[in-house]
Design a protein that fits this description.
The complex is a heterodimer.
Chain A lengths: L2 E5 L2 E5 L4 E8 L4 E8 L5 E7 L5 E3 L5 E5 L4 E6 L8 E9 L2 E6 L3 E6 L1
Parallel strand pairs in A: 2-11
Antiparallel strand pairs in A: 1-3, 3-8, 4-5, 4-9, 6-7, 7-8, 9-10, 9-11
Chain B lengths: L4 E3 L2 E4 L5 E6 L6 E8 L3 E9 L2 E4 L8 E7 L2 E6 L8 E8 L9 E2 L3 E5 L1
Parallel strand pairs in B: 2-11
Antiparallel strand pairs in B: 1-3, 3-8, 4-5, 4-9, 5-6, 7-8, 9-10, 9-11
Classes of the chains: A mainly beta, B mainly beta.
């Protein structure tokens, strides 16, 4: 069975500082991995995804994530935080042949001016 | 493309009333998912359909909840009778199905309040 663990339900960073949101997964087969962002009172929007190929994935709004099989991790980073990055971020995993996504519990990112 | 469309965006009802939430998936997508989001439980998958057929309804909390997908462009989630603990944001999502990524596209959600 697949599962996702997001370390830290709340993360605060200063504007301009590095953003690092952690995600570890468990999957019995090679996974598909996703990061979604949810702004207040909105649905989830895809930030980036890993399926196959290059393990460093770039997404929208300057975010990127690296798939590390040996560490079963898919951490999300952004070099310089912006106030508009304040939102909730969800990591998710699925498997080839299984359309269901398993979501983590989310990390709320706060940007300090 | 208009994206996934959900209606209503907000619903306030009284305990015991029937509630129907509606979803129109993205044209061409053949898998549809219903989720519920609460502070306590986070994001929960309730049920999903593939080619209008329910594939997995193990997340449906109880018999008060039912979902249908009469055609490829419309789905409903019904709660009868509603209870205060059903208050949540309900999301619909769709995906192409059989794709190489399983990326899901989410609607804006319906915020349900049961008094």
């Amino acid at each position: 069975a697949q599962s996702v663990t997001q370390l830290g339900s709340h993360v605060s960073v200063s504007e301009g500082a590095l953003v690092l949101l952690r995600c570890n997964y468990s999957s019995s087969v090679p996974p598909y991995l996703f990061w979604y962002v949810q702004y207040p009172n909105q649905g989830l929007q895809l930030l980036l995804k890993y399926t196959t190929g290059a393990t460093l994935v770039k997404g929208i709004n300057g975010f990127e994530a690296e798939f590390k099989k040996s560490e079963t991790s898919f951490h999300l980073t952004k070099p310089s935080a912006h106030m508009s990055d304040a939102a909730e971020y969800f990591c998710a995993v699925s498997e080839v042949g299984n359309e269901k996504l398993t979501f983590g519990t989310g990390t709320r990112l706060t940007i300090i001016p | 493309d208009a994206g996934v469309i959900q209606s209503p965006r907000h619903e306030v009802t009284e305990m015991g009333q029937e509630v129907t939430l509606r979803c129109k998936p993205i044209s061409g997508h053949n898998s549809l998912f219903w989720y519920r989001q609460t502070m306590m439980r986070g994001l929960e998958l309730l049920i999903y359909f593939n080619n209008n057929v329910p594939i997995d309804d193990s997340g449906m909390p109880e018999d008060r909840f039912s979902a249908k997908m009469p055609n490829a462009s419309f789905s409903t989630l019904k709660i009868q009778p509603s209870e205060p603990r059903d208050s949540a944001v309900y999301f619909c999502a769709s995906t192409i199905g059989g794709s190489q990524s399983n990326e899901q596209f989410f609607g804006p959600g319906t915020r349900l309040t049961v008094l």
